[in-house]
Amino acid sequence: MGAWHKFVAEASRLVPQLRGWRLSEDERELIHKNVDRARATCERLVSAVDSGHLDMDEELNKLLRASGRAAPIAAQGRCPPASTPKPSGGC
Length: 91
Fold this sequence. Notes:
This protein has three helices and no strands.
């Protein structure tokens, strides 16, 4: 949940900073592409929560790989028991 709070907070701070900026067409295109990725990830999260299907599916894994981010171990359903040290990918 902390990642979502951080994302919303950072995005909220970013918008006012963009006032007066003149973005090139390439920059606008890149922003739209990344927002589309974020929307797809948010939709997948909502769908997973609503359906109870909370394991990592191949489509989300492809999306994360395409964005250059590896899926956290916890998202893949492979966290160790609470008594063992947590992996660097997070749990």
